[in-house]
Amino acid sequence: MLASPCDVEADAWNALLALAGGSPFMRHAYLAAMHDSGSAVRDTGWTPQFLTLWREGELQAACPLYLKSHSYGEYVFDWAWANAYEQHGLRYYPKALTAVPFTPVPGPRLLARDAAARAALVRSIIAWCKQKKVSSYHLLFGTEDDIAACADAGLMLRHTVQFHWTNAGYPDFDAFLATLTQEKRKKIRQERRKVAEAGVTFRHVQGSAIAEADWDFFYRCYERTYREHGNPPYLTRDFFRRMAATMPQNWLLFVAERKGRPIATSLIGIGGDVAYGRYWGALERVDCLHFEACYYQPLQWCIANGYRSFEGGAQGEHKMARALMPVKTSSAHWLAHPAFADAVEKFLEREGRGVENYVEHLEQRSPFRQG
Q1: How many angstroms from the chain centroid is the CA of residue 31?
Q2: Measured at the alpha carbon of residue 315, what is the angle toward residues 19 and 279, in degrees to the nearest 5?
């Protein structure tokens, strides 16, 4: 067990990640920045306990592992489980978690050279949890390989819903709109017109072209939006400073301006041929500005640059009206207490049926034209 992601050799970690297809949010630099910036550390409730498995001096498997003193920043909600423990006089925290802090993006979590190494990694995690007498273990937003390894080890599975957009090879934004129903097409045009008539224009900057002043303005917007909801931001300014230094190629910034003055931003993660909606903030209120900054500008950019998909992140049925369709994501869970494990398993069976019905209901409300 390692007390910091920085204790893992970066090239070895990233080599394992590459075998799983890669993910900008599981790169060594991303996880190290979470730690070194003070965003995901013991003081914020994220105590790193990274696990690595070696054979003959070669890294065989590894995963991010945190001891959590709360359930914030995870986006797979287990507050009811924690409350049930407390009501019965039991301690739920600390719990063990494999996830990317504050980042509900599906991707590899159990990095491994092969299926056998991945299975050994899961066994090692559960053995460590039992040794430490933690209440539970949770793996969030894993790949099919991750979830299969957890299921084979007897962990319980849970499913949630996100909303993703798929590029069908549209030549331009109007061609994309033409695939939608008249109602949805009209609504999007109306929303975009409101922003334009308010005198708002957009510019976008990518990678190393994002100047420090742009990052500063982005963070000002990001921080304000969090504080307007009564919370301090999860991520520090230093985190984004480290992103600009170590992973500039993975960021795209949209800046909304009015009368030559910036008023809002949205920050998009990019990796491979996928774009990820991540953070947004505004200093002025403009009707429909959020939709333009967080959906229409990124989708237009994805079409122009040949990106395969845009992942809109956790929650939000309103995203379907912008042609982001429901996609099931999966997590895996182990609880040490037999009675609670049995109760949660029954709950997850009921919840799973509800999720299936929910997705079927959403698909019946598709914004796309039929036939």
Answers
A1: 13
A2: 70
- Two tokens, residue 269: 């993660």
Token output for 51: 């696990």
Question: 213-229: b or e for each residue (b if 16 or more CB lie within 10 Å)?
Answer: ebbebbbebbbebbeee
β-pairing, 136-139 vs 325-335, is antiparallel
Q: Note whether 153 and 126 are within 8 A (CB).
A: yes
Beta-carbon count within 10 A of 179 CB: 14
Global pTM value: 0.96
Tell me the pLDDT of the chain (371 aa) as tens digits.
788 899 999 999 999 999 998 899 999 999 999 999 999 999 999 999 999 999 999 999 999 999 999 999 999 999 999 999 999 999 999 999 999 999 999 999 999 999 999 999 999 999 999 999 999 999 999 999 999 999 999 999 999 999 999 999 999 999 999 999 999 999 999 999 999 999 999 999 999 999 999 999 999 999 999 999 898 999 999 999 999 999 999 999 999 999 999 999 999 999 999 999 999 999 999 999 999 999 999 999 999 999 999 998 777 788 999 999 999 999 999 999 999 999 999 999 999 999 999 999 998 999 999 86
Q: Helix (H, G, I), strand (E, B), or coil: what is residue 282?
A: strand
Do 253 and 205 contact (CB within 8 A), yes or no? yes
**Cα 101 from Cα 109, distance rounded (Å):** 12
User: What is the four-CA torsion angle of 136, 139, 145, 151, rounded to 10 degrees?
Assistant: 30
Matching residue, tokens 């900054």: 293
156, 348 Cβ separation under 8 angstroms: yes
Short-list 290, 270, 265, 262, CA closest to 206: 270
